[in-house]
Amino acid sequence: MAYYYKEMGWKTCLVCADTSRAGAFDQLKQNADKARIPFYGSYIELDPVTITVKGVDKFKNDGFEMIVVDTSGQHKQEVAMFEEMLQVSSAIVRTL
After folding, report:
1. Membrane-spanning residues where (predicted)?
2. What is the CATH number of the domain that holds 90?
């Protein structure tokens, strides 16, 4: 999605807020580098909301027009994942 918007002329970036899947950070970073899309994530921080807020703040201050936030996918704990996505969404809305 970020690549599509980049190709459409938007100033686009990626934030990795997937802290539950092993390798999510590395995979998204590799794809971002290959597509030459700025990337934000953390090996250390485990709270996806904190990562999202920091990444969105950074890229918003840098003048990005499209900030794509990659969150954890669906699995057995679907209700918990949905709640996490709501927390991430609420945190972003507060910063805009």
Report:
1. none
2. 3.40.50.300
Give the total number of structural domains in the chain: 1
Mean pLDDT of 29-55: 95
- Tokens 């209700």 locate to 79
Predicted TM-score (pTM) of this structure: 0.78
pLDDT digit string, tens, across residues 50-92:
999 999 999 999 999 999 999 886 665 577 777 777 887 888 7
The answer to whether the CB of 21 falls within 8 A of the CB of 73 is: yes
- Residue 82 has which token pair? 């949905």
**Nearest partner of 50 among 15, 81, 21, 8, judged by Cα:** 15
Question: What is the Cα Rg of the chain in Å?
Answer: 13
Place of tokens 């700025």: 38
Widest pairwise Cα distance in the chain: 38
Query: From residue 95, how far is each of 23, 26, 53 by CA, in Å?
Result: 28, 26, 7
Domain containing 89 equals 2-95
Length of the chain: 96
